[in-house]
Structure formats: C-alpha cells, structure tokens
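Late entry, adenosine monophosphate complex.
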Amino acid sequence: MTLTVVGSIAFDAVETPSGSRDRLLGGSAVHFALASSQFAPTRVVGPVGDDFGEQEYAILRNRGVLTDDVEHVPGGKTFFWAGRYHRDINHRDTLQTDLNVFEDFQPKLSPASRDAEVLFLGNIQPDLQRDVREQCRAVKFVAMDSMNLWIDIAHDALLETIALVDCLLLNDSELKQLTDEPNIVRAARKALELGPRVVIAKQGEYGSAMITRDGYFGLTAYPTTDIVEPTGAGDSFAGGLMGYVAGEDGNTDDATLRRAMAYGTACASFNVEGFGSERLYELDRAEIDARVAELEAISRF
Ligand code: AMP
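Prediction complete; structure with ligand written out below:
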C-alpha cells in the first residue's frame, strides 16, 4: 500500500561526548523514510534548498524512497538543526533551528502522493501537517508526531491537526505537556479525547506504550549497548511502524499495531547505533526481522 510522509528534510549538526558531525542528512521525514521504505514504497513531501545535492538524493533513492515530491527552492537553504547530547544520551539541548525553506513552504502534493492510503505527518509546523492531511482524501490511516516547540508556540493549530488523525505519537514528556497531566496513562487518555483512536507514547530507552480507549500495550526497547547518536530515533520508530502497517495493506487491528511497534522498535535500535540515520542506509530486511524475533522472545511472559 502507498505511504506518504511530510516532515522536515534537514542538515543536522550534532555533538555527543564521544564525537560530533556538522552536516548529517536528517529531518523527521528523512529518518522516517529511510526506515519505512524497508516495508512499503514511501513518498517524501518537503522542500530543500540549493545546498541539497545529488549525494543526498542518492542516499534516499538507494533505499527506494520516492523523491518526486521533494521541492527544490531555487536560492533557498535547507532546514538546519543543531543539538548537543549530554553524557546521559537521553538528554539533549537544541542549539539552533533554522526553518529556512520551510518558512514559506506551501505543500502541493502530486496526484500519486495525494492518493496515499497511509500517511505520516512528521514533526513540522502543525498548519503544514494539516494542509497535507486535507489534501490526502483517500487516506485510511493517518498518524502524526510533534514536539515541545509546537506545543509551546502553536498550541491551537496543533490541537486542530490532532483532531484529524487516527494515531498520535509523542514522547512521554510531550504527552504530559500537551495535556497538562503528570500521569502518563491519564495524559494518553486525555489525548484520546482530542480525536485519535490510538496514542503511542515513545519512552526512549525504556520502550513504548500504545493506549487505546479499551487497551494498553507496553513494549520494551531493543536492548542495544552500542549507542552512538540517537537523533531521529523517534522518526525511524514511526517509519518502521507505519511502513509495516502499509506493508500489511493498511490493517490496523490491535495485533498488527503491536507487531508494527516491534518493527518500529527494531528500526529505532539501528538508528541509534550510528550518527544520524547512517546505520539504515545499507540495512537489509533480514537484519530487522532478526531483531523483531529477539524482541518477541524477550517480551514473552
Ligand atoms: P528526533 O531525534 O526523533 O526528535 O528527531 C530529530 C530530527 O528532527 C532531526 O533530524 C531534526 O532535523 C528534526 N527537527 C528538529 N527540530 C525540528 C523542528 N522544529 N521541526 C521539524 N524538524 C525538526
């Protein structure tokens, strides 16, 4: 089934206690697509500037990502984000966010992207997410991500977008901030009242939880010890999850969503084992399947 993602396409500069990189291919839509394309053809929607070249397109196309809806803005600069990680790599500070070509971006989806049956609204301004949501009329399952910045500065727009999706994926802390509720289960239930029928709480190294009106499912993270740099872990989690759903003909029953979370978890574990999403560039499906099988064995009780 076809899958479309809108989100940032970025250059990232990251500092960790053990090394730094000043120009990594990043952005929510890129991390997502490098994972989701393992399971289903993925179209990326978003703008780039003159600094985005053949090398970057090649990374995406080598994975089979469809880039026809990547819009080149002549004279523009690609979105730029810089962050610094602490020794406890779950903590980071954002040093810089330059929206650049995203400032004036107005998504115009190609017919193929508009026909998507599975849609992911990656982290970007909520008005842009909503615009894309409204263009995709044939869609059967829509999920979205967001972040503390938009909860702070675009709260009402964010609520309008959340009302239009089936599944909301946020970090624990973002769910608590969004709903002004310090208990995660209550926070997730309050988020369900905003419209989605599924809420997925990302909990970093502790795993993730899926909350629906009548159910709760928790999944551990894959126990990797080789953490290099975690930027994009949440997006590659979403990519594995949504890619799996698209690969299963858009089936979103409880059992499929649980398995989809395991695929997201496996993709995120590879993502954190290198800078940016570089571990995903050459990954094959069998390596992902092997980690999902290990997760199934770990979580059996
Ligand atoms: P994550 O580590 O899952 O939070 O995702 C990090 C990615 O999100 C990086 O590749 C950034 O380029 C991108 N990013 C950071 N801030 C923003 C923002 N305000 N809007 C859109 N994308 C962002």
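The pocket of adenosine monophosphate is lined by residues 8, 10, 12, 26-28, 31, 81, 97, 123-124, 149, 231-235 (CB under 6 Å). Will revisit in the morning.
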